Amino acid sequence: MDFIKLAKERYSVRDYKDKEVEEEKIDQILEAAKVAPTACNFQPQKIFVLKSPEAIEKIRKITKNAYNAPIVFLICVNEDESWQSPFTENYNSGVMDGSIVCSHMMLQAKDLGLDSVWVVSFDPELTKREFNIPENLRPVCLLPVGYASENAKPTDNHNTFKERNELVEEL
């Protein structure tokens, strides 16, 4: 599949089949995370793979937006290891790096025939406490992944895009 076709076909899935994700597919998603570009290639990401029944139950209690996905990736960044801008006070690339990593994971999942939804609607501090995440790690997002159910469909505005001239300006 070419990239633009893949990008257009991907949508946020909020209903999954009760089917496990194969380990080799999980490995490929994590490989995509590993090779994702980060500022200065510092690679500050730390990814927690939530797939045990206990971990899935816990994340579903933390947020309704884990849906019924059989696996949830919790993408965190170590802000002590992420790039600090010498030009902008208190600018840390961690959230940007974590977002790039999540994008790679999401698109790799789609390329493998899986679906996902990017989630930021969760309490990071509660998540840290519940999963005993070290203080230096910042939860950036969740990525529930699985096989879309027969009822899954894109939102009504999924294929609504601004015109290019509203988004791009050549100087």
Short description:
This protein has 171 residues and is α+β, with helices and mostly antiparallel strands.
In words, what does this structure look like?
This is Nitroreductase family protein. It is a single chain. The radius of gyration is 17 Å and the shape is globular. The protein has 171 residues and is an alpha+beta fold. It is built from six helices and four strands. Helices cover 34% and strands 15% of the residues. The chain has a single domain, classed as NADH Oxidase, CATH 3.40.109. Helix 2 runs antiparallel to helix 4. The longest helix is centred in the middle third of the chain and has 18 residues, at 94-111.
